[in-house]
Amino acid sequence: MRVKLVDWLIEVQDEYKLQNETLHLAVAYVDRFLSEMSVSRPKLQLLGTTSMFLAAKFEEIYPPDADEFAYVTADTYTRSEVLMMERLMLGHFKCTLSVPTTLQFLNIFHEQSNLSDDAKFLSFYFSELALLEEAYLQYPPSIRAAAAISLAVCTVHHAHNSDVDNANAKAIGETLLLSKYPVCDSVPSPRVVFSSTILCCIKDKLQKVFDCAQELAKSHLAEANESNRHFVYEKYSLTKQRSVTTFDPLLANETTQSSLTWETVMSLWVT
């Protein structure tokens, strides 16, 4: 049920053109509330709706009002029910609504690195895949962000390597025929320059980063299967998101060896 709820929240966020941080914050509120309170299945959507309502008021300049959030549930809940849940959540949270999210750490890492745009948008995509599954709750937001970046960099590098291999094959064939076309050089190992502050914060947590990145690689593979897709796939297939869903997963299937190795991940974060 949680997967369906979060996937629906991603769709609501996209429909209302809310900030990505609003989505991440809303999911954080859902998990924070569920970790301490029991919520019946019929009320889960109300919890998700109200979490998005609270997050929008915290993040957006012009947030949708309670009536709009009641409407988005197909009037399953009323404005009064949304406001009542809001009061309950605020009381439970003691009005403390500022919490760290994966997206906040991603933005910090992006600002203090030389990541390509493809890698940045892929890391956004992976961070939202992580929102769907409870398994990622064992990792703090900073680890999820570092794992998303690690997988994104390796995925982009793998795609470029494939392009070079194809170019080399073509060039070799033409060289044999015409003897005048040079063969393309191979793509160097993935390399990203991070600030010393970022490296200092991450270097002692690399095992967790690697473990999380491996889980994300499996999620990426699962999402590539048409029968398993969620709305997040549709969201990141758009041109404005650089159509990053077109990048092939590093895993061909769940039993194959991934090119996401410990040495590769470590080389990204250790100078």
Strand content: under 5%
**Can you tell me the CATH superfamily of the largest domain?**
Cyclin-like
Q: What average pLDDT do the residues reach?
A: 87
Shape: globular
CATH architecture of the largest domain: Orthogonal Bundle
Name the helix and strand elements from N-terminus to C-terminus, one letter apiece.
Answer: HHHHHHHHHHHH
Query: Rounded to an integer, what's the Rg over CA atoms?
Result: 21 Å
**In CATH terms, what is the fold-level topology of the largest domain?**
Cyclin A, domain 1
Count of domain modules: 2
Oligomeric state of shown chains? single chain
What's the end-to-end separation, in Å? 43 Å
Largest sheet: none
| Discrete helix count | 12
The share of residues in helices is 55-70%
Label the structural class.
Answer: mainly alpha
Count of beta strands: 0
Low-confidence stretches: 164-187
CATH class of the largest domain: Mainly Alpha
GO biological process, one term: cell division
InterPro entries: Cyclin, Cyclin-like_dom, Cyclin-like_sf, Cyclin_A/B-like, Cyclin_C-dom, Cyclin_N, Cyclins_cyclin-box
GO molecular function: cyclin-dependent protein serine/threonine kinase regulator activity
Domain Cyclin-like: 7-91, 104-181
